[in-house]
Design a protein that fits this description.
- This protein has about 280 residues and is α/β, with parallel strands linked by helices.
- Helix 1 packs across helix 2 (about 60-75), helix 1 (about 30-40) runs parallel beside helix 8 and helix 7 packs parallel to helix 8.
- It has helices at about 30-40, 60-75, 90-95, 125-135, 150-160, 185-190, 210-215, 240-255, 260-270; strands at about 10, 45-50, 50, 60, 80, 105-110, 115, 120, 140-145, 170-175, 200-205, 220-225, 230-235, 235.
- The structure holds (5S)-5-amino-3-OXO-hexanoic acid (KMH) and zinc ion.
- The site of zinc ion (ZN) has 7 residues, from loops.
Length: about 280
């Protein structure tokens, strides 16, 4: 059986990573644009995007997303996947703002969980509202699942007509409060997917590269970047998400996978053509 090309996603900024943890975190639109271009050159076809105020505070401000998206598009052809998760504690209205920028893709967080010492709230009414707005704007959702029950929730919502199947899932593994990043768990999660669905894996912290490798060997896709992990190897900071993308590209090739171009990734992810 021919395996699909691997879609590599770079989560270049996030909401939690700080400049104290790594000086390489991009913050301004220009920095995000430059970093996205380096990631694209290293093999990323999707940029998972958060934005910050100049002082590094996470925000879902529409104008800042517009600016960052323009800075990215001016430098490279990638699928921009805007976050609707934002940072813990943000309201639904704040989190939904980037959907007004008409990105090609956005995250749809499938359920609530303890998130470290915080709680990340994604109640069903919020998931339904975000899904409806994405459908209306033809924005393709990536279904963020932090635990097995979140997959079951997506399938239940699909039964209600809220989510279209087949869909693209992202298994976020290793959040304190979510499912642990183990091979046994990944096989269990993948076993829950209906036919035709695709999956991506975002391993947190030191699990990033090993879980990416496993996913790529299992026929899945992979995410890396400073949002989830700041280290290239033990004690060595990545100089940017692009260094991690370069590692993923090597792992994909070693697994016998081609790297998806943005055009191929759009086909695989069923992203509608834009004017
Ligand atoms: N910052 C996390 C609480 C997403 O981008 O949709 C949620 C998050 C998920 O990063
Ligand atoms: Zn995110």
């Amino acid at each position: 059986m021919q395996t699909e090309p691997a879609i590599l996603t770079a989560a270049i900024c996030g909401a939690e990573t700080t400049r104290e943890q790594t000086p390489y975190l991009p913050i301004t639109a220009e920095e995000l644009g430059e970093e996205a271009a380096r990631c694209a050159a290293a093999g990323a076809s999707v940029i998972h995007l958060h934005v910050r105020k100049n002082d590094g505070t996470p925000t879902q401000d529409r104008a800042l997303f517009d600016k960052a998206i323009r800075a990215i598009r001016a430098r490279c052809d990638v699928i921009v996947q805007t976050s609707t998760g934002g940072a813990v504690g943000m309201s639904a209205a704040e989190r939904a703002q980037p959907l007004d920028c008409n990105p090609e893709m956005a995250t749809l967080n499938a359920g609530s969980l303890n998130f470290g010492e915080d709680v990340f709230l994604n109640p069903f009414p919020m998931v339904r509202e975000f899904a409806a707005r994405m459908r209306e704007k033809r924005i393709v959702p990536e279904l963020e699942c932090y635990d097995a029950g979140h997959i079951e929730s997506c399938l239940w919502l699909a039964g209600q007509g809220v989510i279209d199947l087949p869909a693209h899932f992202d298994f976020v593994m290793g959040v304190r409060g979510g499912i642990a990043a183990t091979e046994e768990n990944l096989r269990f999660l993948v076993g829950k997917l209906p036919p035709g669905c695709s999956f991506n894996v975002a391993g947190i912290g030191r699990f990033q590269l090993p879980m990416a490798e496993l996913s790529l060997r299992m026929g899945g896709h992979a995410r890396c970047g400073l949002e989830d992990n700041v280290y290239l190897s033990k004690g060595v900071l990545a100089k940017g998400s692009y260094e991690l993308v370069a590692e993923l590209s090597k792992l994909a090739r070693a697994a016998g996978r081609e790297i998806a171009t943005p055009a191929r990734a759009r086909q695989l992810l069923r992203i509608p053509a834009r004017a």
